Structures are given as structure tokens and as C-alpha cells.
Description:
Layout: H1 6-13, E1 19-23, E2 28-30, E3 38-44, E4 47-52, E5 58-64, E6 69-70, E7 85-88, E8 92-98, H2 99-108, H3 110-154, E9 155-158, E10 161-164, H4 170-177, H5 181-193, E11 197-200, E12 203-206, H6 209-215
Helix pairs in contact: 3-4, 3-6, 4-5
Amino acid sequence: MDTIDMESFVRHFYEIPGHVILLHKDEYLFHEGDSAKYFYIVRSGQVFITKYASSGRVLSLRLAARGSIIGELPLFEAQSTYIFNAIAQSTAEVYAIEFPVLQDYLAKKPNLAVDLLRILGAHMRKQHSKFRDLILYGKKGALYSTLIRLTNSYGKQEADGILISVPLTNQELANYSGTARESLNRMLSELRKAGIIESRGHLILVKDLDFLKQAIQCENCGREICNIE
Length: 229
């Protein structure tokens, strides 16, 4: 599959009538169960896509950044609801387009509709690979997978490793790993003692990326799939 030029792709959607929503940190864009009315594009900042379990545990699925599309799954469904939550990780702006308006536009632009389907397919592959790592390799696998994806999305090459440039709390990392914060803290401590990672203030420096990849038998599926967005 050819790689889609996301910047060019997203630019087309700004031609469609919509409105801008400003979100403050920790503010919800929508809750799971809300009536689904809008398709969103992140213009700035980051937005967590999460799922809540009946136990109260949180599973984070994505950290959508500039140019990411969110709230897309209910498109073309009648009287649908959002199945995830969208929460601002930082101050963020999103562009909101009503589903009927978007549907009319896509009907007139079949090539754009095909590209959108390809992106939805890529999203499904991302989620399947995350669940694979969680199920096959447990909580450690989920954490290692998350760290690898974060380096692909927000990594900056340093002399002694790859610095994940987005600050995340241990609770937020635990949410990606589907585990309790206490367990997450222990796993991070083990990685630090082994020299695999290092703390740089609120950031994480990954010093041995190959160790993480080998531990989960990384398939090197490419950044377009192996990312946190």
C-alpha cells in the first residue's frame, strides 16, 4: 500500500464547512456513549483516545497529534454513538465537521473517500498490533510496545539514545499498558536498573531500543503502523 501524504490529505478536509473547538488540558471532546455527530481533525496539541472498563481501569489507545483524525468510526452509521473517549492531553484545537456534511463531500470526491478508507484500515491494523502485544506478551509487552511506538511518534535522536519528547505521567503510561500504576512503576524501575531507559525530568530516554524490540519479537511493520497516533 502506498503511503498517503497525510498533510495533503487533511488539507482537503479544511475545505469542508466546519468549526474550530478549543480544548483545555484534561477537557473531554466527547465521551463514549455520546451521540456521534462530528468527524474531527486535530489542528494542534494532543488528544488521548481512551476506553473505560467496568472496573474503572482505563485503556489508552491513541495519542492523536496534529493532522490526526478522530471520531471517524461512526461515519455512515445511523444514530450512532462514540465508542471511545477523547480527552485533551494538552491545550488543543480540533476542526469539527458534521457527519452529513462530510458524507455529501465524500460522495462528490470518491478518491478522497478511498484514501479515508485506507486510513481507517491502517487504524485497525495499529489497534490489532497493540492488542497482540498485550495479549501475547502481557503487561511488559504492552509497556515495551508503547515505548517503541512513542519513539516512532515523538522520538528525538540523542547521542546516547532516543528521547521521547512528549511528557507522560506514569499513570498515562499505565493506561497504555492496561495495567495498574504500581506495576508500571516496577517495570520502569527494572528498565532503568538494566540501563534500557533513563529518566530526563518528565521525559524518557530510550537507550536500548533493540532490547525492547527483541523482547516482543518486533515485526518491524513500519512507522505508519507502529506509532502511538
